[in-house]
Amino acid sequence: MVDAKIIQGRAAPLPIENLDTDQIMPKQFLRGIDKSGLTQGLLYDLRFDTKGKPEPDFVLNQPGYAGASILIGGSNFGCGSSREHAVWGLLQYGFQAVVAPSFAEIFFSNAMNNRLLLVTLPAAQIAQLMADASDPEANGVTIDVSAQTVQSRGVRANFDMVPRHRRMFLEGLDNIGLSLTYQDQVRGFAARHWQRQPWLKDVAALTRTRLST
Fold first, then answer.
1. CA 151/CA 141 separation, integer angstroms
2. CATH 3.40.1360.10 fits 6-173, yes or no
3. Among residues 119, 81, 117, which one has the least CA distance to residue 100?
């Protein structure tokens, strides 16, 4: 279940440290100029063998993890290149959140700005989440963005969020949507600015008009 405040669902454990964005979304899937068609590329070299056949032992190919919406990862998740396609691919595949001990900085910004929730927890709690996820009877995680909590059968933990990111998730906003909420303040600032310095307003347009006459 996914809404602006709660992410609840099956978790997939992926205990790989330093999983980089090249592995999350290999280069051959970066040829498009939009965000579409990235589901196939997600973790391709881990999901498929050299002949393109699914690797039966890989977690996302196992029936018990079909439809997983939460990924439990290792430390330094999303390191490597800054490709935003890695985030888009995770979202397109159906993941709404990644929980890990740490994230690469650029990946973190890309993910949160695209409303892919990233939750940082201590390694011991991540290990317990992975253990819970490996047990079909215990595999259920609830992330409450409003309360900033993560809960599974064996874990109940709090996590931190930057106020801007928390507001985006609670109000269902992306970066543009968040910026648009400040329209009144921007208009007010502009009005005060032009009132104090009217000679600067529309200088380029006035100059073009003068030169064309």
1. 6
2. no
3. 119
Q: CA-CA distance, 82 to 98, in Å (whole number)?
A: 17
CA 60 – CA 54 distance, rounded (Å): 10
* Whether the model pTM is above 0.90: no
Where are the alpha helices (H) located in 70-198, listed in sequence order?
Answer: 85-93, 105-113, 123-133, 163-171, 175-180, 183-196
pLDDT (tens digit, 9 = 90+) per residue, 51-95?
999 999 999 999 999 999 999 999 999 999 999 999 999 999 999
Residue burial 149-169, b: 16+ Cβ < 10 Å; e: rest: ebbbbebebebebeeebeebb
Residue 156, phi-psi category: left (phi > 0), alpha (psi -120 to 50), beta (remainder): beta
d(CA 87, CA 116): 7
What is the percent of the chain with per-residue pLDDT over 90, rounded to a whole number?
A: 73
Average pLDDT, the chain: 92
Dmax over CA atoms of the chain, in Å, equals: 79
Question: Between 184 and 32, whose confidence is greater?
Answer: 184
**Domain extent listing, the chain:** 6-173, 183-212
